[in-house]
Write a structure and sequence with these properties.
Shape: globular
Order of helices and strands: HEEEEEEEEEEHEEEEHEEEEEEEEHEEEE
Helix content: under 10%
Oligomer: single chain
Distance between the termini: 72 Å
Radius of gyration: 21 Å
Number of strands: 26
Structural class: mainly beta
Number of helices: 4
Strand order of the largest sheet: 10-14-13-12-11
Largest sheet: 5 strands, mixed
Length: 354
């Protein structure tokens, strides 16, 4: 009987659902860096592969986390359940951008153009919503709801590559084009331009006529967005737009790729660590637009995980999301891990003069 009891005891000998317990702590919630095997239903996330090129979303209701992973020729989506185990999906769309609305997973690729689909999480049925490739026609409405003519639609074709998907706080999927224009998904093969007050002027001041080339876009509040690009930040809140010019490449700054909106109104900038930029230099943009550079010491190697903010600063974030309690979830491409981070209560760095 003792032997039988031992065989049927499924209690793990480790904590399958680690979480930060103090501000400034980083914990690994998924990913064993040496594991490249395809993920399987029922495996524990922290012992499975979490190698990802992008795509992460958090279900605010259940706390489940969705992650696009690389597994040979396949790119399944893992759902990290609240108990730390995995459920694995195999959508047809290979996109590396994910979003969630109620019982629906949105998937977008934008390598050459926009391909957007949605998958029901109850039936697993997948529906293609947008495809801007040759031979596909989509209806584009202006902000007032009137259709654009064919010539103007054709003029947009080259701006779909490298677009970003974000699910606004009210549940509406929004596409940020390479040019920086905002489009609400209005239905199958239909989008409508969203033009918050002052957005056109702010966009023009940041880009000076060039493409915006957004690196990331995250929802803020019920109707706001935070968009990060090489030229700076675009903030939308209460239907109005604001721009903060940074100009990373021309000012010797890291090419940040992720922006985390903090509770005090500031923004934490991550990424940019590379062979040419070996030491991490995260940034902090204050609510008044001032930029500070943070210091967390030398780069942390994957095998040197110590649970500090230096781990987050050293990461290559390819997906970020926020949990209901304020913790952030970050997919790190470099180490093939997913982190859960509790931001420090106060951040301070060295002021940078732009």
């Amino acid at each position: 009987m003792a032997a039988l009891s031992a065989c049927t005891d499924q209690t793990p000998s480790f904590n399958p659902t680690p979480a930060p317990t103090r501000p400034g702590q980083v914990v690994v919630i998924a990913g064993s860096p040496e594991n490249y095997d395809p993920p399987r239903d029922g495996e524990y996330a922290i012992r499975s592969s979490a190698q990802s090129e992008g795509g992460l979303a958090v279900d605010s209701a259940s706390g489940a986390i969705y992650l696009r992973v690389v597994s040979g020729s396949d790119k399944p989506v893992e759902r990290i359940e609240p108990d730390g185990t995995l459920t694995v999906f195999h959508p047809k769309n290979p996109g590396d951008q994910l979003g969630l609305t109620r019982e629906t997973l949105w998937i977008m690729s934008s390598y050459k153009g926009v391909r957007l689909s949605k998958m029901s999480l109850t039936s697993l049925a997948e529906t293609e919503m947008l495809n801007t490739g040759r031979g596909h026609e989509i209806e584009v409405l202006d902000p007032s709801g009137d259709p654009l003519d064919a010539r103007k639609r054709e003029g947009l074709r080259e701006t779909w590559a490298d677009s970003r998907l974000v699910i606004r706080g009210d549940g509406v999927p929004v596409i940020v084009s390479r040019a920086g224009r905002l489009y609400e998904v209005a239905g199958p093969d239909k989008i409508r331009e969203w033009n918050p007050t002052g957005y056109g002027e702010v966009l023009g001041n940041l880009t000076k006529g060039a493409d915006l080339r957004p690196a990331s876009a995250v929802a803020v509040g019920s109707n706001g967005l935070l968009i990060l690009a090489r030229s700076g930040l675009l903030q939308i809140g209460d239907g109005r737009a604001r721009g903060i010019r940074i100009r990373m490449l021309s000012h010797g700054l890291p090419e940040w790729s992720a922006a985390l909106p903090l509770d005090d109104g500031s923004t934490l900038l991550l990424g940019g660590t590379s062979a040419a930029e070996p030491d991490p230099r995260p940034g902090l943009v204050r609510q008044n637009g001032k930029l500070e550079l943070l210091t967390y010491g030398k780069r942390r190697r994957c095998e040197g995980f110590d649970g500090s903010m230096g781990v987050l600063a050293s990461s290559d974030p390819v997906g970020t999301s926020r949990m209901n309690n304020g913790d952030f979830v970050v997919a790190d491409q470099t180490c093939g891990r997913v982190y859960r981070v509790r931001p420090p209560r106060q951040l301070a760095g060295v002021p940078h003069t732009r």
